[in-house]
Amino acid sequence: MLESNPPLLRHFEALLRHPAEIPALECDERQSGEFMEEIGQLPLIDLNGLKCHDVMERLACSTRICRASSEWGFFQVINHGISSELLRKMKREQVKLFQAPFEMKVSGGLLNNSYTWGTTTATSPNQFSWSEAFHIPLTEISEETYYGEYFSSLREVMKEFAAAMSKLARLLAEILSENLGSQKGELEDLCDESTCFLRLNRYPACQISPEVFGLVPHTDSDFLTILCQDQVGGLQLKKGSKWVAVKPIQDALLVNIGDLFQAWSNDVYKSVEHKVMVNRKTERYSIAYFLCPSYDSLIASFKEPSIYRKFTFGEYRKRVQEDVKKTGYKIGLQRFLL
């Protein structure tokens, strides 16, 4: 049987043998003295409150969403409108996709050659992500030629899943933007399917050490992200000076604020650093939906005085990519402070 796992160990060991000498960044220094809380109870919000006939209950649910976005930058939602059956079907198709031979994933043209593994820009072990992923723009999900003869069933399931995640993301974004005083539909006009995408993730078991990153510490460069994860665990987020482990809840979805919403809200909402740690024995799967604007959309704080200078999404992405290539790390919003 052909090997399905990417050669993560070989790449990681090469980094251990030949670490590059690069300047230490501020983010390394900030992590000294930090410690982990074993279990973090994120705000858990029942979205049935948004459908309630009682106006006050609808308002209370919206308030909980906005408060969690300000205080945590993360929250979990239940009764979100995406059925347990669809979540299971998507997980089943995702597992089948990642079980394909490594050579097929790398060079078989699957999903428009969107497969990635490890971290090509890593110059030291602490910049390396022990994971593999497919990055799929929403506009390409319907393309039949991207799936090959073995994964045709993935196409229909992913179309349904992406549509449901998009609907939920836009609902939450509208609540958050209206809370800031923006006009109804203002954020909706900024977002563009051509830049929104799904990321299918797999984190293989790693017997080297539980301290290896499945995904290095980072913030998301979008408005908001919705994550569907399995029950394995491993996701951690920054709360003050602590790393907090997120305990998965069956069929709940995890929502987090991205950099663009933090800038747009003038730091009312927080884009929080998070990471994934590997598991020695068990692989982990997740699917993330990223709500993004068009590349020429101008990101400007909703009120003055603004903390950040104005920038386009395209400019922001370009600067992030340049920093990662040069230093191995994302610097992000710090680059755009006034």
TrEMBL record:
Family matches, as Gene3D superfamilies: B-lactam Antibiotic, Isopenicillin N Synthase, Chain (2.60.120.330)
GO molecular function: gibberellin 2-beta-dioxygenase activity; metal ion binding
Enzyme class of the recorded protein, top EC level: oxidoreductase
Superkingdom, taxonomy of origin: Eukaryota
Any GO BP annotation: gibberellin metabolic process
Key words, A-Z: Dioxygenase, Iron, Metal-binding, Oxidoreductase
InterPro entries: DIOX_N, IPNS-like_FE2OG_OXY, IPNS-like_sf, Iron_ascorbate_oxido_reductase, Oxoglu/Fe-dep_dioxygenase_dom
Catalytic activity: gibberellin A1 + 2-oxoglutarate + O2 = gibberellin A8 + succinate + CO2
Domain Fe2OG dioxygenase: 192-293
Listed PROSITE patterns: FE2OG_OXY
Record EC number: 1.14.11.13
Coiled-coil annotated spans: none
Protein family membership: Belongs to the iron/ascorbate-dependent oxidoreductase family. GA2OX subfamily.
Protein name: gibberellin 2beta-dioxygenase
